[in-house]
Co/Zn/Cd efflux system component (Candidatus Babela massiliensis), 298 residues
Amino acid sequence: MNLSNKDKKDLDFRLQLGIALNTLFTIVEFFIGFFSGSLALISDAAHNLTDVLSLIISFTAQKLSLKQPDNKKTFGYGRITILAALLNIIILCILTLYIFIEIYQRFYEPESISGTLVTITSLVGIIVNGGIALLFLKYKSDLNIKSSLINMIFDAIASAGAFVSGIIITLTNNTFIDLIISSFIGLMLIFNIFKLLKEVIHILLEGTPEHINVKQVKKEIEQLDLVKKVEHLHIWSISSYNVSLSCHIIIDRDKLDQSIEIVQKVKDLLKNRFNITHATIEVNTEICDKNGCSLVYK
């Protein structure tokens, strides 16, 4: 589904608001985490820092993707958002590596942690990170935004983990829980990195969009009047919102004079049923004899 101009402006505003809120909270949380000695808070602040970068990347890609097609980029610049998602995945990988390195170091060299300070700061983090994540739920079908959304969601989870960690440390003075929660967050990050990477690779390899059933598309085109068969059907994504299709349709030779009307019916079907607005359709006919049938190009 393509974004309307209103949606584009709304998304721009949400991205800018997310950048501002995240930047402010990251600065505050990092200093509190540093002075309190909490790895959970430092990890969370580091993740927040990557989120700021992630949102800037998403915002920039969103702007660039709106450029009109030209002689060098005839399909337009929509795929920039997919490359932005890939870049955000790299950032998530670096963040995950950092978390596990810190866990390893803290395991052998434990540090004292202020449980009360961690609890208060992480509670604010849950509100801020959760609120920012809610800003982007409306646009989660866009992989560019989804990659940033995952960052936001895991910041909220990391803050929740730090909150639990702070309470337990305050009550028991046991800082080992900080490492356990950080490990859990790191493992969840790894799972979602692979999930997001799979979606990005699928688009870059011109895979069929997940929400489209190729067999169903072929079946419905062939059910149209005067269309005998569909061949060489290809469906792929330019970006998360823009889907393209190309195919050959076979019609009777004596119906070639109606080919323009037939193609228009196919395009109307694709737009109304599958939201495919960019379709290239070639019309063919067949000549059959005792040796079989062969295609004749119009």
The helical segments are 5-36, 39-64, 80-108, 115-136, 143-172, 176-204, 214-222, 259-274. The mean pLDDT is 81. The two ends are 32 Å apart (CA to CA).
